[in-house]
Amino acid sequence: MSTSHLLNVDGVSRRRSGREAVTDVSFSLNRGEVLGLLGVNGAGKSTTLSMLSGALRPDHGRIELDGQDFIAHPALARQLVGWLPESAPLWPELSVEEHLVAFARLRGAARQAARRAAQSIIARLQLGDLRQRLAGVLSQGQRQRLGLACALVHDPALIILDEPANALDPIQAGELRKLIRERAAAGSAVILSTHVLAEVVAVCDRVAILHEGRLRQDAPLRGEQGGTSLEAAFFGIATGTSA
Ligand SMILES: Nc1ncnc2c1ncn2[C@@H]1O[C@H](COP(=O)(O)OP(=O)(O)OP(=O)(O)O)[C@@H](O)[C@H]1O
């Protein structure tokens, strides 16, 4: 397997509840690339992302991150991966700032460095007004922004976002797109799972389509033309009418 990519996924499979949720999925991702992950409900997107985040172990296959065997060394995830799951795991009794310091510390930062990292992501995500607010009283969109900040506080090489625009207003959704491109320009690789095709066209370089646990397409996206052909490809695969 090539080690020049940041991420190499090779023949990964995982069963859940006695059924194949993800089967023989392979793809690679370079630094600076944004990959959109599409698929109908139950296609296997979250299962795939959970494996890439280190939270779920594949039954078969190999994942290589930054040239290292990720399955044998799941602790790599702590420093190299930032994961926003479908619903961000937050502690209701901790403030926004306390969350970010705690996440930075969990990722290995020393106390002062964790405080600096927290201040930096608070400023970047415009969370200053919410700094002292307890997570338990945040609105849904505010919780989502805090979850995103927790995923990014340690400046990870691989950013995994599972439906990150959920509950965001149009202004915040636009800010999210800018942030994703900014992180990619700074050298991170991003995987974005979403049901919104326009979001993929707006922000992704490549799109992968999962269906019934299998990767059915992995192709670059190119401008408006990409949007039209993406819709056709998605519906073709989802309805079983693709060539
Ligand atoms: N915690 C779990 N325990 C058992 N089975 C699960 C679990 N999570 C998902 N599955 C099953 O694995 C398969 C893939 O689900 P997954 O959540 O990965 O799909 P998805 O593409 O993320 O779907 P959605 O778009 O609805 O979020 C489904 O058949 C689902 O029922």
UniProtKB/TrEMBL annotation:
<feature type="domain" description="ABC transporter">
    <location>
        <begin position="7"/>
        <end position="237"/>
    </location>
</feature>
<dbReference type="InterPro" id="IPR003439">
    <property type="entry name" value="ABC_transporter-like_ATP-bd"/>
</dbReference>
<dbReference type="GO" id="GO:0005524">
    <property type="term" value="F:ATP binding"/>
</dbReference>
<dbReference type="InterPro" id="IPR003593">
    <property type="entry name" value="AAA+_ATPase"/>
</dbReference>
<protein>
    <submittedName>
        <fullName>ABC-2 type transport system ATP-binding protein</fullName>
    </submittedName>
</protein>
<keyword id="KW-0067">ATP-binding</keyword>
<keyword id="KW-0813">Transport</keyword>
<dbReference type="Pfam" id="PF00005">
    <property type="entry name" value="ABC_tran"/>
</dbReference>
<keyword id="KW-0547">Nucleotide-binding</keyword>
<dbReference type="InterPro" id="IPR027417">
    <property type="entry name" value="P-loop_NTPase"/>
</dbReference>
<dbReference type="InterPro" id="IPR017871">
    <property type="entry name" value="ABC_transporter-like_CS"/>
</dbReference>
<comment type="similarity">
    <text>Belongs to the ABC transporter superfamily.</text>
</comment>
